[in-house]
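tool_call predict_complex ligand=fe (ii) ion
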Amino acid sequence: MGNHDKIADTMEFPPATEQPNVFPLSWHSHTRKMEEIWTAAQNEVWDPAKLSWDTFDPSQYSWEEREAIAYWWTLLSVFDASAPPVFAEALIKTYEVHEEDPVRRCFFSVTRDEQNHEQLCGMAITRLLEHPDPLTYEPKTELGKKLQRNAKWLYYNGGRYWNGYKQAVPKYDLAVLFSSFLMGEIAAATIFHQMAANSSETVFQEAFSNVGRDEGRHMAICMTLMQRDYPKLKTDEKSIITKQIRAGYLFLSAVLFEPPADFWDLPSDFIEVQREAEAVAREAGFGIPDYETKKQNWKNAMLNLKGVLDKYDIPFPAIPEVGITGEEVRDVDMEDIIPVF
Ligand SMILES: [Fe+2]
Ligand SMILES: [Fe+2]
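tool_result ok
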């Protein structure tokens, strides 16, 4: 206020606030579906700290099993620990562009949910490793050492998109920004439900059903946004969406399938080490889906999304990795990623 000249005594009403300013002073509601999703989000709130952790005794597992299961949670964290700031940024955008009130609330709910998912990862890792940080933890087995190396490379790769994302947020509309969100949420919802069904620990069953239900709501938010905005897309926006779908595939494959080598910068034994850990974790009763199941999930998610995009004449990218033909998209880099979880 220091060098602001006071004007309130010189006119009856203040001049109009320059737009867009950061916040709307209005609560318009046009999209009934968003209201329904918000209501569901309020009713389904859960607290990771209140899961049945008291039934979980990590000392019943060998150190190799503990490190293998903690590795999977670490892999998930590479995505879920960056989700809160990603969605917080998107939430701010919903205010800047004066989105209708239920859309602002829905993005708030995604931010909160992803914060819960991040907390959950931390709670599982800390108990399994007796250390709150998988990168500074001292591995106790040979497999644990190799897994920590994997984790360091995942973390390095995951850190590369943030600047690109921050530049993309002001440039594109929400429905364009989150075009590959739907595919990620469909596959994530499926995987978490499978993991809930196939994990023997009560606390993990509870956790995965909650996370799967959250991802299902995120999927519905994305779908509703698309139905509202895709009929008015411009041609150049359509080609950005096609590229984003391919980018989303490459990025999310690391957690929902396996990381594609031309995109993720990883050591050559990475996948072998990861598969070894997954086998150990599965054997210990931790329900990570196998290669074929993951591949089928991923393919179904993409075919679902393709069905949506076809309706709006948006070309789908080729995903030869799972046998989907389409428009060829080349030269996607980490900096082009609009991360989705
Ligand atoms: Fe999540
Ligand atoms: Fe999500």
